[in-house]
From TrEMBL:
Its main location: membrane. Residues 82-214 form the Fatty acid hydroxylase domain. One of its GO terms (biological process) is membrane lipid metabolic process. It comes from Flavihumibacter petaseus NBRC 106054. This is Putative monooxygenase.
């Protein structure tokens, strides 16, 4: 049976995260916080899953562009591989810079900068929207003439390296500081300190920042991580869509069509503070002031841990999974991620999500094990839950919170 060995990246990265956590504890550094780590990993789960579903599409696009519009026909060699890596990082620099300077692109990239921690889990904060946009930038590579297989191989390397620079435990790297993007450089990039804003956009090489005037060295001052306007929400959906909503509100406040378009392609600081206030009030966004108790923490860890195991299995055997199961798993994964964020915020409507997840699990079981003997107990379970919905909800909330 053919399996996807890239799935083993999940346990590898989790092991590295655990190692960083243990080292930080030994060094008495408060690098990890529970809620932040859970939300970071949750975003990463969604990205890894969506990436598995659409990676083939990206490969097809690269292959089609190279075969039909490629200016040159470039053969894979060590030299062309190095050239491609440099070009990939150069294109990334400009994508990344535009993602910070243009509202339309910032709406997709902002999720990566929401965490007020800075550790290996932050590297997981990539969204499907960001993947699609940066793929659009990388489409120049097959047009130049690089084959899709070569681009894919280089992008794997280009995607792995940044994981290791999302850390506070590494100091400066000596002479490599002049060539590579190091943890020190990337700490500056994730800082919300005024003197560090919009700096160090490179992914592997820092030379682009030095060439185009966006380099800033870490100077030893304490760094504050996250957004200049902290999100203060653990909601999975709000983290992904808050800036889109803020941007829409800000555009509606523009009196002319030209003003709306100008804002869409304008800088994030032009949006202002008012749209965030309006959006949070309308959607009732708030962060719970109560710390997660031990039981709640264990329950969320169990849910995220289960998802990680299921995601690993899904990626490992992705080529053998039919589309009905993929749809059911997609819905279950999204509901669980939304549920975990809502539990961290101690929302009362989480019981409805739990009920929906139960129905999905029952549906999946009946789809693959159409056993009449089990049909009636499952229907009875659903019926009892409907009849005693309110008392069960009360018991559930008392148990979780």
């Amino acid at each position: 049976m053919l399996v996807n060995y890239m799935a083993f990246a999940i346990p590898l990265f989790l092991a590295l995260m655990l190692t960083e956590y243990l080292v930080s504890r030994k060094q008495k550094k408060a690098v990890y916080h529970f809620e932040s780590s859970i939300t970071n990993i949750s975003v990463g789960i969604a990205e890894r899953f969506s990436d598995a579903l659409i990676t083939g599409t990206f490969f097809f696009v690269y292959d089609y562009l190279q075969k039909h519009y490629g200016i040159f026909t470039i053969k894979p060699t060590i030299v062309t591989g190095i050239v491609l890596l440099l070009l990939t990082d150069f294109v990334w620099y400009w994508y990344h810079r535009f993602a910070h300077e243009i509202n339309l692109f910032w709406a997709a990239h902002v999720v990566h900068h929401q965490s007020e921690d800075f550790n290996y889990t932050v590297s997981a904060r990539i969204t499907l929207f960001q993947s699609v946009i940066r793929t659009g930038f990388w489409c120049i590579l097959p047009v130049i003439g690089f084959p899709a297989s070569m681009i894919t191989a280089v992008l794997i390397v280009h995607g792995l390296y940044p994981f290791f620079i999302h850390t506070q435990l590494w100091g400066k790297w000596g002479i490599l500081e002049y060539i590579l993007v190091t943890p020190s450089h990337h700490r500056v990039h994730h800082a919300s300190n005024p003197e560090y804003l919009d700096k160090n956009y490179g992914d592997i090489f820092i030379i682009w920042d030095k060439l185009f005037g966006t380099f800033q060295a870490e100077d030893g001052r304490p760094i504050v991580y996250g957004l200049t306007k902290p999100l203060r929400s653990n909601s999975f959906l709000w983290q992904h869509f808050h800036y889109v909503i803020e941007l829409v509100i800000a555009m509606k406040r523009q009196p002319t069509f030209a003003g709306k378009v100008r804002l869409l392609f304008g800088r994030p600081d032009e949006v202002g503070d008012a749209p965030r206030v309006i959006a949070e009030k309308y959607f009732g966004i708030r962060r719970s002031t109560m710390a997660a108790n031990r039981g709640l923490s264990h329950y969320v860890i169990a849910q995220v841990g289960t998802l990680l195991v299921l995601l690993f299995a899904f990626l490992l055997f992705a080529d053998h999974i039919d589309w009905p199961f993929q749809i059911l798993f997609t819905l279950f994964l999204l509901l669980t991620l939304i549920n975990c964020g809502a539990i961290l915020e101690q929302r009362t409507w989480v019981f409805s999500l739990e009920y929906a997840r139960m129905i999905l699990l029952c549906s999946a079981y009946l789809l693959y094990e159409p056993d009449l003997f089990m049909l009636f107990p499952l229907l009875a379970l659903v019926t009892v839950t409907i009849i005693y919905y309110r008392p069960l909800k009360k018991l559930y909330l008392a148990w979780v919170y």
